[in-house]
Automatic annotation (TrEMBL):
Entry's Gene Ontology molecular function annotations: isomerase activity; lyase activity
Protein name: Enoyl-CoA hydratase/isomerase family protein
Cross-referenced SUPFAM superfamilies: ClpP/crotonase
UniProt family annotation: Belongs to the enoyl-CoA hydratase/isomerase family.
Amino acid sequence: MDAMTTLEDAAPVKVRMTGEGSAVHLELDSPATRNALSPETVRALRRAVESAVAEERAALVMTSTGPAFAAGMDLRQIDHADDETLRRQFREIQGLLTDLYQAPLVTVAVLDGDAVGAGADLALACDHRIGSPRTTFRFPGPQFGLLLGTRRLAQETSPAIAQGLALTGAKLSARRALDVGLLTQLVESDQLESTAGAVVGAAGSSVVGIAGLTRAVRRDRPAQSDLELLEESMTPGLAQRMTAFRDRTGRRR
């Protein structure tokens, strides 16, 4: 029988297990913040990924409630954060992205809304990214001097496309996201669950070892290089730049 739990009260991440050795479903459930990645949520997601790996699950599916898949970091918190606090939080997010990307199981992101900043990077850390026509992607981090997930963006699209998205912070429609490789499948909203289910079913019934398969198909890209790139980008004045970006764009979360 499926079981749904919330990892901790402060972190709205619901976890549902679909049977021993099968899939684990993670649901971001904070529509009021557009599923922004708070420190508590990031820690909860990391624990869920670690648990799925330890239990040798075949697949992990990440979904969300509300109008956004994930809106990145909640920018309201930077009013009370200095550079070092923000650096620690971004390192935790990078750790989550690395954990998810390197997990020896099939990972699926189901998107039925906006994926912004670290939320877009969270989706890109998954093997399969299934979106609806309501899905959009945007990568505003470089506009306040932050390189998070940029190498993965370049590998999934192309260096030129990644550079353009980093320079402009432009929003990509679902169709364009599919064309450039941010989405792996584009279906109607009412088909998202069944499409993800087909991927999970294939993983669960595969005669090939899932751990070996994921190692075989993923590109060789040292995770440490992503962290080094992030560290180099977090120069003094990060909090001030993020505050200016928030105030300039009017984005509170």
